[in-house]
Amino acid sequence: MTEKLSYEEFVKQAILKLRTGDYKGIHTVYSGFNEAFRKYFDGANPIEITTQLAQEKKIVIRPVKGGVMLYLPEDVPQTNKAEQVLKKMGLNN
């Protein structure tokens, strides 16, 4: 039997293998990540673990509708929501 991945290895591998199209991150709910994490780690809480990994700057978490997106630090979209809104409104300088 192969050795189990660490939490960090599992999360990073999931981000790399579950992302689709041009997306650089994964939605924890819609991708099936949370469910797979709990199954692989015998019921461990993916929210606690991913939050810890984010605090350690190993991954980045962005809140989105229905959950969160997980990114590798080098793949985080560099968008500023306020700037996007102002641009759409024609109010940016």
Keywords:
single chain, 93 residues, alpha+beta, Arc Repressor Mutant, subunit A, 3-stranded antiparallel beta sheet, 4 helices, 3 strands, 42% helix
What does this structure look like?
The chain is α+β, with helices and mostly antiparallel strands and 93 residues long. It has one domain (7-89): Orthogonal Bundle (Arc Repressor Mutant, subunit A), CATH 1.10.10. 42% of the residues lie in helices and 13% in strands. The chain has 4 helices and 3 strands, in the order H-E-H-H-E-E-H. The protein has helices spanning 7-18, 33-40, 46-55, 81-89; strands at residues 26-27, 60-64, 67-71. Strands 1-3-2 form a 3-stranded antiparallel sheet, covered by helices on one side. The longest helix has 12 residues, at 7-18. The chain is elongated, with a radius of gyration of 15 Å. The model has no long low-confidence stretch (mean pLDDT 91).
Describe the secondary-structure layout.
Layout: H1 7-18, E1 26-27, H2 33-40, H3 46-55, E2 60-64, E3 67-71, H4 81-89
Antiparallel strand pairs: 1-3, 2-3
Fold-level CATH name: Arc Repressor Mutant, subunit A
Corresponding CATH architecture: Orthogonal Bundle
Structural class: alpha+beta
The proportion of strand residues reads 5-15%
Shape: elongated
User: Whole-number radius of gyration?
Assistant: 15 Å
CATH C-level class is: Mainly Alpha
Sheet of most strands:
3 strands, antiparallel
Q: How much helix, percentage-wise, in residues? A: 40-55%
What series of H and E elements makes up the topology?
HEHHEEH
Compute the average pLDDT: 91
Low-pLDDT runs of 5+ residues are none
Strand order of the largest sheet: 1-3-2
Number of domains: 1
Number of strands: 3
